[in-house]
Amino acid sequence: MTATASTPPTPDVLIVGAGLIGLAIGWRAAGRGLQVTIVDPAPGTGASGVAAGMLAPVTEATYNEEALLRLNLASAAAYPDFVAELTEATGLDTGYCTSGTLLAAVDGDDLAHAAELHAFQRTLGLDVEAVDARELRRREPMLAPGLRGGLWVAGDHHIDPRRLLDALLAACRAAGVRFVEVAAAAVASSAGRAIGVELTDGTRLSGGRVVLAAGAHTGQLRGLPAGAFDCLRPVKGQILRLRGPALLGHTVRGLVRGTSIYLVPRADGEVVVGATVEEQGFDTSVTAGAGYELLRDALELVPALSELELTEIRAGLRPGTPDNGPLLGPAHLTDLVVATGHYRNGVLLTPITAQAITAMLTDAEPPAVTTPFRADRFARRSAAGGERIAVAP
């Protein structure tokens, strides 16, 4: 059901943003008996639809990000039940695939980097197997014959974010979530409390609590304390889609002369190739150079990709934070809840984020693994008065 901006209901929860995060929160909150309205001019069409859909806590593990690794692992563990419940509620397939992930190294330096990564992963107790070139090609026969070796991660999977968006939209509508398809311009507040949002057409919507889940654009909303989201920045990622006969059975991540790339296959023969990491502000233009580099490195891994049709090149904006972790929970104003900053892990962190934020909205205890990712952790207290002041990265 779509509400008109002129006669909106007054919900318990007003969510800004209808990407994977906002939709999953809306679905879960409605399932707990809350009246939910989601504000977004085009639900399901933002950065979530650009993502490749890797669910890869192990191959994304990075030095000094152990708390984020634990969060990622917890969300990955929640995925089977999450998608099963979603499919049961809607009858829609999300493209969830548990075939595992291969990491392939092109030259000796890449193999040395893979070995270093493997040693680090093993210190964390992660399930990773080093494999030689022969084993790589046994698992993926279409890989180039000159690869040096790599890693096998049985527990890193993938999903189709576009199908997941469709399923969450259907689940939200079936659960009674209302959509207002107008952009939010500002958070409305009174006496330090969030009371709703103002739309770009001047309409004001009221809500018991306001959830900001607008990804990289969250900080562009007016009505927030000065500097509230100085810690949040857009990180551009360009991505390609190819289509043809099915070539791959697993996600393939590559180290190609020091550059990282990934190839994510779909059951219908699509292969998603990504992604660049660019600090370009809110620019979402696609460039010839990025497309060339992605195709060049992809062909180093799987030469047969040259026969596939290039169907799409798009750019999305990841919401980045100084420590690459999300912003989850109350912040800045009473009754304002934040769910953004997921950076490269937005698809992966959808189930745990929805669980955590819904717990907060119902005054329950969120999962302990989310505690390090308080939404106000980049703020400091002023010397006078004790108010919180945002700290820029």
Give a quick account of the main beta sheet: strands, pairing sense, barrel closure. 8 strands, mixed
Strand order of the largest sheet: 5-6-4-14-15-16-13-17
Terminal Cα span: 40 Å
Strand percentage:
25-35%
Helix/strand order = EHEEHEHEHEEHEEEEEEEEEHEEEHEE
So how many helices?
Answer: 7
Mean pLDDT: 94
Q: Which outline best applies?
A: globular
Low-confidence blocks of residues: 1-6, 381-393
What is the CATH top level name of the largest domain?
Answer: Alpha Beta
CATH superfamily of the largest domain: FAD/NAD(P)-binding domain
The CATH topology of the largest domain corresponds to FAD/NAD(P)-binding domain
For the record, the count of structural domains works out to 2
Helical content band: 25-40%
- Cα-atom radius of gyration: 21 Å
CATH architecture of the largest domain: 3-Layer(bba) Sandwich
The number of strands is: 21
From the helix content, strand content and strand pairing, which structural class follows? alpha+beta
Model description:
The protein folds into 2 domains: 13-49 and 163-231 and 323-390, FAD/NAD(P)-binding domain; 101-154 and 233-320, 2-Layer Sandwich (D-Amino Acid Oxidase, Chain A, domain 2), CATH 3.30.9. It is 25% helix and 28% strand. The protein has helices at residues 20-31, 66-90, 108-123, 133-139, 161-174, 288-301, 350-361; strands at residues 13-16, 36-39, 54-55, 101-105, 129-132, 149-153, 157-158, 178-180, 184-190, 193-199, 204-206, 209-212, 233-243, 251-256, 259-265, 270-274, 309-320, 327-331, 333-340, 379-381, 388-390. Helix 1 packs across helix 7 (350-361) and helix 2 (66-90) crosses helix 7. The longest helix has 25 residues, at 66-90. It is globular. The chain starts with 12 loop residues before the first strand and ends with a strand.
